[in-house]
Amino acid sequence: MPWSPRAAFFWDLVLGVLGTLAFLIDLGADLWTASQYVLSGRYLWAALVLALLGLASVALQLFSWVWLRADISSGHAPKPPGLCLALLHVLQLGYLHRCVQGLRQGLLVWRQEVPSQFDLAYADFLSLDISMLRLFETFLEMTPQLTLVLAIMLQSGGAEYYQWVSICTSFVGISWALLDYHRALRTCLPSKPLLGLGASVIYFLWNLLLLWPRVLVVALFSALFPRYVALHFLGLWLVLLFWVWLQGTDFMPDPCSEWLYRATVATILYFSWFNVAEGRTRGRATIHLAFLLNDSLLLVVAWATQSACLPSGHLLQRLLPAAGACFLLGLALRLVYYRWLHPSCRWEPDQVDGTWALRSLEGRQLPQNRRMAHLAKNFFPKGRDEAALPWKGEVNGVL
User: Fold this and answer.
1) Which of 35, 149, 332, 391 could be bridged to 354 by S-S, CB 3.0 to 4.6 A?
2) Which segments cross the bilayer (predicted)?
């Protein structure tokens, strides 16, 4: 028996609370780590932690503000008080405000015995934006912070307790953000089934297992060649930015903010795969995986010639084989997921969702999150008969 919208939103509400708590815990762990560096006299490390945190926060607020202005001007979302909202973003509280707003809307839907179509659509609208912002925060702040902490540990030859806390919260937060983003994409397309428990576990694991070796080798290079890691990142980032530009992204409402999106996607691609173009993704994903694998192997070769410079050399002799095993296992789980668990493997037209959506509108325009709907259509291959269905032209409230 399918879940009612009220029951489904209860679990969405629980996941929203957990996601907000994870964001606050990770923020607290970063500030705690920076304060410990200051107390121990390691001012450069503290400055790097705070710089990464500040740059990611500014980018996150810019995305939130640009989306908000575009949504208000197009009438796709209720109009909030403009001055207070602008002040929240200036104070770097815009993302947290969105999280609180999403939880309030989810609680409103859950309390209603029969939720209205507008409340359901607006709750989806908010949760999709929050999921996307969480993904951006993950790769702009959490993943670089994790790489920095690992590099510091490898360079110093030991680890403090607060560094272990930062590492654990970062790994869990990164994988959770990827899983939450994937779940959000599925909700955009009525014909795609929701992510089940088994598929969620596999998706969580293969992202974690493929990300860990990449972060480790970049941290190795940072520990050995701290003066050149910025050049390495900038060189690869420019190549990836050019690749994203060639794919003709059209995600943001204006050309200037589109370059902010492309720069963010290039940063994500430095660590993990992220699809931005329409069509089959197998070829592009294979090219990206081979590119990162070759770059990681070159970084490992650089470590092999200079490993004596690190006090943690003996530890690395055990970590690198473990990272290789994690990569192979993650690759195997990724193949399993896309072979048997990806929705395109068992796609069937959902006539009920489409006809219900058309009849439920009754001339009333619902909030429409075109951004995530566009990404969802890019991410999931179209079904064989999808184009033939008259209701499949638009998704997520765009009727």
Assistant:
1) 391
2) 7-25, 45-68, 161-179, 199-221, 228-247, 259-277, 289-306, 318-337
CB atoms under 10 Å from CB of 122, counted, come to 23
pLDDT computed for residue 384 by the predictor: 36
Distance set, CA 264 to CA 133, 180, 287 (Å): 11, 18, 19
Phi then psi for residue 110, to 5 deg, are -65, -30
Tens digit of pLDDT for each residue in 172-212? Answer: 788 778 878 877 777 776 655 566 677 778 888 888 889 88
Tell me how far apart the alpha carbons of residues 159 and 151 are, in angstroms, rounded to a whole number: 11
pLDDT in tens, 272-299: 988 887 767 778 888 999 999 999 999 8
pLDDT band at 55 (very low <50, low <70, confident <90, very high): very high
Residue with tokens 């794919």: 247
HEC letters along the chain = CCCCHHHHHHHHHHHHHHHHHHHHHHHHHHHHHHHHHHHCCCHHHHHHHHHHHHHHHHHHHHHHHHHHHHHHHHCCCCCCCHHHHHHHHHCCCHHHHHHHHHHHHHHHHHHCCCCCHHHHHHHHHHHHHHHHHHHHHHHHHHHHHHHHHHHHHHHHCCCCHHHHHHHHHHHHHHHHHHHHHHHHHHHHCCCCCCCCHHHHHHHHHHHHHHHHHHHHHHHHHHHHCCCCHHHHHHHHHHHHHHHHHHCCCCCCCCHHHHHHHHHHHHHHHHHCCCCCCCCCCHHHHHHHHHHHHHHHHHHHHHHHHHHHHCCCHHHHHHHHHHHHHHHHHHHHHHHHHHHHHCHHHHCCCCHHHHHHHHHHHCCCCCCCCHHHHHHHHHHCCCCCCHHHCHHHHCCCCCC
Of 217 and 310, the one with more pLDDT: 217
Give me 202's structure tokens: 């596999």
Q: Which amino acid is at 203?
A: Y
306 compared with 54, residue with greater pLDDT:
54
State yes or no: pLDDT of 171 exceeds 70. Answer: yes
What mean pLDDT is predicted for residues 301-328?
75
Cα separation, 258 vs 245, in Å, equals: 10
d(CA 249, CA 226) in angstroms, rounded, equals: 33
d(CA 63, CA 141): 15
Looking at residues 329-334, what average pLDDT do you find?
Answer: 92
